[in-house]
Amino acid sequence: MATATATATIPTPILPSEPEPESHLRESSTTLNPTPISPKSLPDLLSTHSLSTYNCHICFSPPTNATMTPCGHVACGPCLFTAVKTALRRESMMMGGAM
Length: 99
Description:
Layout: H1 23-32, H2 42-48, E1 66-68, E2 74-76, H3 77-94
Antiparallel strand pairs: 1-2
């Protein structure tokens, strides 16, 4: 009785010999160019993306002098300034110094 042996082949990924370092820049630059907004559609855009739809993450009210943090949160300028100043003062007090 003959037995058949199955051999499985594992596909090898095909990698380029040398990547083109600027090829991804050319591809992405076309996607980064925004489509111009017509002046007629601007009021519609602003009504759906108005800052009044956001709330400050500190005082929970619509932001005054809105400021966006690097992580994307929107807060009132004065609220954010006070929060950062308080955090720095608290950290200084915990370290034993005074501000």
